[in-house]
Design goal:
The complex is a heterodimer of chains A (about 100) and B (about 220). Helices cover about 75% and strands about 5% of the residues of chain A. Chain A is mostly helical. Chain A has a two-stranded antiparallel sheet. In chain A, strand 1 and strand 2 form a beta hairpin. Chain B contains eleven helices and no strands. In chain B, helix 1 packs parallel to helix 7, helix 2 packs antiparallel against helix 7 and helix 6 packs antiparallel against helix 7. The model of chain B has no long low-confidence stretch (mean pLDDT about 90). Classes of the chains: A mainly alpha (about 100), B mainly alpha (about 220). At the A-B interface, helix 1, helix 2, strand 2, helix 3 and helix 4 of A face helix 1, helix 2, helix 3, helix 4 and helix 5 of B.
């Protein structure tokens, strides 16, 4: 199952990249399509933050991840670089697990 | 001139490449093998989509949800390709290579050279794309090996690394009010759906929000 996801994702990812180079420009120049494309990653990344922070097998939980993501948010607000943000979140969660 | 562009490209490539550590570790935390993590970085080579695959699979989602969520995130690369095609003007094998390294960073560095002409834009694209490709794959391997060596991922806080990584990818996109509204609505809708839908489905459902924004909200 994991290999299926890897191979299919890779194939589609490449085709999407290639498509942009290969299709006539006017196909994608529609203002609505452009607006959709601009906001699509924002919506999906926000959804992924929610799922990965709050979701577990039973539904919604507030656990060490919620605190860690809050810390990550503060770090981003203070303009910390990406690896520092991830490291701080991991340290926060690890610290809570140690308690 | 070209030295300054190469310096920009290298610094972007190194910084972004280091994120590969977070990806490699997240992949192992989601029960991918080191080989699977590396193959995904080599072939898919688009960070947010790769994180989506391991995020959805790690949460117990189906392969299909993982593929759909990752592919929706990859749609933006088509638009980067569209932007780059008239600048690069490549065919055949070179176009395949150009397509594979058409990502956020190579496009951004290239577009930033606009005032310096086509040659500068091409150099920025190729140098950044190839640089990120090399570093991203090296650091994926290191992250995956590192996480394997660590053992219990939750004890090291890796469970929180994935959502923090998504937040880090989301943050630079929140530059307009409409982007912030899209993000908030998406978090709201997704949280509502989590208890009722299979893992991965709430994420895919959130593609509705930008669709509504583009096709209903705007009455131009």
């Amino acid at each position: 199952m994991i290999w299926t996801a890897i191979i299919a994702t890779s194939f589609i990812a490449f085709m999407l990249k290639y498509l942009g180079q290969a299709v006539p420009a006017r196909w994608l120049e529609n203002a609505r399509i452009q607006k959709f494309a601009l906001h699509l990653p924002t919506a999906l990344l926000a959804a992924l933050v929610a799922v990965q922070t709050l979701g577990n097998q039973k539904g919604i939980v507030f656990d060490a991840r919620s605190v860690a993501v809050l810390v990550a948010g503060v770090a981003l607000f203070l303009k910390a670089p990406f690896p520092v943000v991830v490291l701080l979140a991991a340290l926060t969660s690890a610290g809570i697990h140690q308690l | 001139m070209s030295r300054a562009i190469l310096r920009d490209s290298l610094s972007v490539a190194l910084t972004v490449g280091v994120y590969g550590i977070a990806f490699g570790a997240a992949a192992v935390e989601a029960d991918l093998s080191v080989l699977q993590a590396c193959v995904l970085s080599l072939l898919a080579f688009t960070g947010a989509s790769q994180f989506a695959v391991v995020g959805v699979l790690g949460a117990g989602g189906s392969a299909l949800s993982a593929i759909i969520a990752a592919s929706l995130l990859g749609v933006r690369n088509s638009f980067y390709g569209l932007r780059m095609a008239p600048i690069l003007q490549v065919r055949g094998v070179k176009r395949f290579a150009a397509a594979q390294i058409t990502i956020d960073e190579s496009t951004a560095v290239s577009v930033a050279q606009e005032d310096k002409g086509l040659a500068a834009m091409r150099l920025g694209f190729w140098a950044t794309g190839v640089g990120v490709y090399i570093f991203w794959n090296i650091f994926t391997l290191l992250g995956a090996l590192g996480a394997t060596a660590l053992g219990d991922p939750a004890a090291w806080g890796l469970d929180a690394a994935v959502p923090a990584a998504f937040l880090g990818l989301l943050w630079p996109r929140l530059i307009s009010n409409s982007a912030r509204i899209v993000a908030l609505l998406s978090i709201f809708l997704c949280t509502l759906l989590i208890p009722f839908a299979a893992a991965g489905v709430p994420v895919i459902a959130c593609a509705l929000i930008p669709f509504i924004f583009a096709y209903v909200g705007d009455r131009k």
